[in-house]
Amino acid sequence: MLHRHHTMELTQIQIIVLCAALTQLIFEYFLKKANEGHFLRMRDDPPPESGNLMDRKTWVKATDYSLAKSRFSSVEDLFGFVLFVVVFLYFFPFVFLEWKTELSLQSSPWLCAFVVTVFLTVLQIPSLFFDWIKQFSLEEKFGFNKSTKGLWVADKVKGSILGFLFSFLLLALMIWLYREISTAFPHTWWIWVFVVFFGIQLLLMILWPKFIIPLFNKLSPLEEGELRERLMALSDKTGFKAQTIEVIDGSKRSGHSNAYFTGFGKFRRIVLYDTLIEQMETEEIEAVLAHEVGHYKLGHIPKRLALSFFLGLGGFFILSYFLKSPWFYEGFGLDASLTQAFAPVLVAFSLALGFFTYWLSPISNHFSRKHEFEADHFAKKAVGSPEPLVSALRKLYVENLSHPLPHPMMTTFHYSHPTLLEREKALRSGS
Predict the structure, then answer these.
(1) How large a percentage of the chain has pLDDT more than 90?
(2) Which terminal residue of the chain, N or C, has fewer Cβ atoms less than 10 Å from its own Cβ?
(3) Is position 28 annotated as part of the catalytic site?
């Protein structure tokens, strides 16, 4: 029987969460409008500080691309808010009350995990529509889409199956661990469960490039030649000792170019997009590699992992408090009989958390940008000059149609990397 009385009158917690979601929506709307106005004022009259970053035609195209992405994102935000309200007030209480027997402490961890994973998977379905429009309309319009509709569908099917399996198995394990450990350690169980959870995350960092990425993309060792010789020499010179440098066939799906570092310890590897190799000269790619090596040599990876660990541990501590609080369940439209049931409080916590942590994004972005400056400086020292990296960054901006002069507030909340002009200034400062 549907428990309608739980959804007819809003609880204090529901009001607080909805206000937080609405506040974020409104703030994001005005932030994006300010950024769009900032772009429009410069569209036909580039400011002097833009220098010779890109020619007039590219500048206009980059502006139009940034405007199109921003407006599309605003539509997504509005739809996401409406969907959240429906899910939060109706769909979530309905599922977790109708299936409360299957979600209780007495139920099988497998059954409980299955119900929750199906619920979370269903929530992802509407986003597929926006992904399709973005890929075959927006990205297509600006020349970035290289994927076929068949390949897109295949990617989504494979991604959905893998996501379902990972989520199902991980959640089932966590529910089982919680039930077993909380009996013996009622006050500290959250520490041990989180340590296992974090350990699995580290394992996935190792397994992801080796077993998951090849399901979607072809990874090949960088072929023999001058480029490989110079990159391996740079790797040895900087003490990175790369096992391999791999090339990913990013051009199969997109015209965007990039390079990234993945894994840690002896499992670390650097991956270059084939589009990047096509677009850049050898010394520019060398500088890009030096930047990625810089992240490793300067300890950015363990610093980020340590931060993630302590934030996650804090999150599990808060979760442990909510687990034994009947008011928390009732506040989300659930039944107090679900108290101590791990899955419902985990989902409720996850649904609401982002609207509050959003306001911490300027802090995380600040430290991320600091790491990028440090990696840039490392690259400059490694290759002996700032110019190769400056040239590489300019090409990345031009080829990806990235606008070099976003609104300062937009960079504060959304940019994990410094702007192009900020990076150029720092590289050439001599510091």
Answers:
(1) 62
(2) N
(3) no
